Amino acid sequence: MYFDLYHFSFGNRSLWQLINGTGVLRPKELVSRELTRNGKKILDGLSFYKKPVMVAGEQLKGKKLSKLHKDLVQKISQFLGVEELQSWELFSSFLSNDYRGSQKNLQHILNNERHTQALVYKIRDYYFTERLYLLQCVKVVINFWQDDDHPYKDELEQFMRRLTTDGNIMEKILDQFKGCIKEQLPTWETNGTMMTERQAHVWAHQNLLEQCELLEILVIFLKDLEINTDQAINLVEMFKRHGFGRHQKYKHILEDPAEPFIKRIGHLEMLILLEALDLEMVHGCTHLGSFDGHCILKDPSSFKRLDEVIQTLGSDPSHGPLLLSWVAIRMVYPTVTDNSLTRKMGNSALALRVFDVLYEILNTEPFSSKTSFVSSVAHYIVYNMLVNLLSAFDEGSLGGEREIKVLYANICKLLKQEFVAEDFWNKGLEEGLGCVFHSSRLKFPLDFGSLVRLSTSLACSGMDSARKIVEFWRKLPCYTEFLDRNSVSDINQTKDPLIWQLARNKIPYPGGSFKIDAGTLGQCLPMAGKRDDSESPIIQWDVEYNGWELLLCEIEMLLQQISLGAGTYNNNGYCVSLGTGTYNNLQQISLGAGMVSPMQVSRVTLIVEMVGAVLGAYPKAMEELDQVIECLYQLIHRFASFNPPPLDLMTSCIQCLTSVAKKHPTKVWHNMKQTGMVPYLTENVDNLAEVLRYLHICLPSNHCYQLHSNHSSCNQLHSNHSCYKQLHSNHSCCNQLHSNHSCYKQLHSNHSCCN
Fold first, then answer.
1. 426-442 pLDDT per residue, tens
2. H/E segment holding residue 90
3. 309 Cβ partners below 8 Å, 6+ apart?
């Protein structure tokens, strides 16, 4: 009877592995046949599994089952809430694909009530997994039917066309989602005595997972689909009733581990609504001056209906992105006359910390993944939202200093995506995110971090973008600073009270090569920047200069500070008086016999991160940035003896040199030995076992001391990892380093212990 039960059902997991196109590739004919055979199941999704509607045992009359097997199937049916015929097929599939015992073991299990209950729980786990794999199959089809690189692209495309012909996929997905959110929590009264409180928690977790999967499918599917006004309004109202994930029917049993899934549901529902607005088309219509090409906004009455629905939002942080996107649309829509309502909606979005919500989305799974298709779509949606927003508003009107800081953090995150960077360069600096980049360029180096961080993100996106960043920094158009950084004798006022002229050469970095020639004109900007709770004018010198020279001077200034100091570094966020003026809002303190500024350390860290990003994506820039690279060895050498050292800076230096080592391994290894950062041998040995037996001949490096004294620091572990990665890079490239291999193994062993 055991072998008669083998139904050899092609399980959903096996189907997903077949059509996914990863691993072992199967004949295309087999893929096409299995897609056709399972077409209805894929189209129906979770609706494929039916609830019991007949009297217990009625559907099994036609099956030749023993009493033990029949009782088991009925228990499965009651416990899972699945009709008996499908429960029998599920049991058969479980035996075929997941059961690892023998026929004798199965009989022994079925004869013992306690063992039978454990078996039912295993079948429940298998069933839940199969439901998720079925949704994954749907996701594969929707993901890759237009992907020319997928090995089964033709088969998936043909299958997708059949699906769209046989039924409305979006309605099917929405019906499944509605079914999920309407499901009642199972109890022992409805699902039998096996449904304990613990098992109810398992069911609730599964239900949340299925909601997430269905919403991810919708996010992917809607990227190529236009929806009408009624559908958009229905989505808004449905997600509002759902509380953007908060109004679960079983929320009274949910615990802290469920919070990430609830947040993900809210984020996905918000992304779906943003996608339904087709923000990319909104931007195009704004340029054309007509909304006739937009599926919803082409009709003023449709705009009014949707406007009335969106006005009811504003009570939950998840509403923020939709409100702010709608505000941007209202600003450019021709029939809108009530600007006070637009301002009210915008203020509500800012009060809900809309940019924090976007930042949370971009930095949590699955949206932060580098390989997830959902992540790419989410980044694209947020990017289009910010493009519309920054095209309609000046960045200064989007909140206070904190909000602008988070906005810049979101932009930096987006610009790391290759397709975003490509669109950024195509649009130029006159619209969208380009306006922010241009604004940062005009405020540099007064606002030092913004331009450097944006440049780092662009360099991370790919080789072409990194090359453009190198070219961009060769020619910066102006030098911006506080006016009081100049003494009265250094500048002359012209006939225009807002225009000043340098009376002598300006050297912002003492001892540096960077200078601004006498006679250069500067415009005193009307806006004021706050310093020490007082307002100070800002002047913008009209001079074109090489930004790489300025960045090199920043590094040299830090090296000069170290040489004047006594090996002391304050890590408490204070700063000191340097050069011709003082840095704003930072307490001045003297450290030891000299001064090392945490602000300068922070600046140089940002510079090194940008250089590392450029070299990682565009190695040809090494020659041009050779002077900067040489300074990195000095930074490592001088800071390695500090206790504690600036770990972020050390990590960035090592990561940057790792990129250099891929092209010049011998040179990097030689220079790194001079820094004292890595261990080294004091004599040549023929037997590597001696290195392990007499470790005293291997002099401990500064890095070893740091590892010993700071082993509990997470940042230190990050620094260790970067160091080992660089050692491995050098070791892989240089055969002459075999004599040090055992030392590396010991370092790696220490690192593993710390982890």
1. 999 988 899 999 999 99
2. helix 84-97
3. 233, 236, 237
Separation between Cα atoms, residue 179 and residue 253, nearest integer Å:
20
> Are 79 and 124 contacting, i.e. CB atoms less than 8 angstroms apart?
yes
pLDDT at 733 over 70: no
Closest CA to 452 of 280, 606, 226: 606
The first and second tokens of residue 429, run together, are 């600096």
The pLDDT confidence band at residue 310, using thresholds 50, 70 and 90, is: very high
- At 280, list the tokens: 């990319």
Three-state DSSP at 594 gives strand
CA distance 545 to 474: 7
Q: Residue 479 forms beta bridges with which residues?
A: 541
What does the DSSP assignment read for 294-333? STTTTSHHHHHHHHHHHTT--SSGGGHHHHHHHHHHHHH-
Q: For the chain, percent helix, then strand, then coil, each to nearest 5?
A: 65, 5, 30
Element at 482 (helix H, strand E): strand 479-482
Calculated CA dihedral for residues 294, 296, 300, 301, nearest 10 degrees? 160
**% of the chain surpassing 90 pLDDT:** 56
Helices 433-443 & 418-427 angle (0-180, nearest 10)? 70
**Residue 645 pLDDT grade (very low, low, confident, very high; cuts 50, 70, 90):** confident
**Contact, 524 vs 542, CB < 8 A?**
no
The β-bridge partners of 482 are: 538
Indicate the DSSP class of residue 701: P
What integer pLDDT is reported at residue 753 of this predicted model? 42
Question: How is 642-696 classified by DSSP, letter by letter?
Answer: SSS--HHHHHHHHHHHHHHHTT-HHHHHHHHHHHT-S-EESS--S-HHHHHH-GG
Please state the domain extents for the chain. 12-167, 227-474, 480-543
Q: How far apart are CA 275 and CA 220, in angstroms?
A: 10
Give me 567's structure tokens: 């090996």
With tokens 């607005």, the residue in question is 277
> Hey, which residues does 480 pair with through a beta bridge?
445, 540
- The arithmetic mean of pLDDT across residues 258-274, rounded, is 95
Average pLDDT over the chain reads 84
For the stretch 365-404, pLDDT in tens is: 899 988 888 999 999 999 999 999 998 898 888 989 999 9
Q: Are 275 and 381 in contact (CB under 8 A)?
A: yes
Read off φ and ψ for residue 523, nearest 5 degrees.
-100, 130
Judge residue 748's burial from the number of C-beta atoms within 10 Å of its C-beta, 0-12 exposed, 13-18 middle, 19 or more buried: middle
Phi-psi region of 86 (alpha: psi -120 to 50; beta: other; left: phi over 0): alpha
Q: Can you give the pLDDT at residue 712?
A: 44
CB within 8 Å of 101: residues ≥ 6 apart? 109
Nearest to 753 by CA among 704, 717, 727, 722: 717
d(CA 375, CA 371): 8
Distances (CA, A) of 311 to 127, 197, 319, 389, 653: 42, 41, 10, 18, 50
The number of residues in the chain equals: 755
Give 344-348 contacts, CB < 8 A, sequence gap 24+.
Answer: 345/310, 345/311, 345/314, 348/314, 348/323
Q: In this structure, are residues 382 and 414 in contact, taking their beta carbons and an 8 Å threshold?
A: yes
Cα 43–chain centre separation: 31
Question: CB under 8 Å, gap of 24 or more: what pairs does 232-236 form?
Answer: 232/273, 232/276, 232/277, 232/296, 232/306, 233/305, 233/306, 233/309, 235/272, 235/273, 235/276, 236/273, 236/306, 236/309, 236/310, 236/313
Of 461, 632, 468, nearest to 556 by C-alpha is 632
What single-letter DSSP state applies at residue 445?
Answer: B
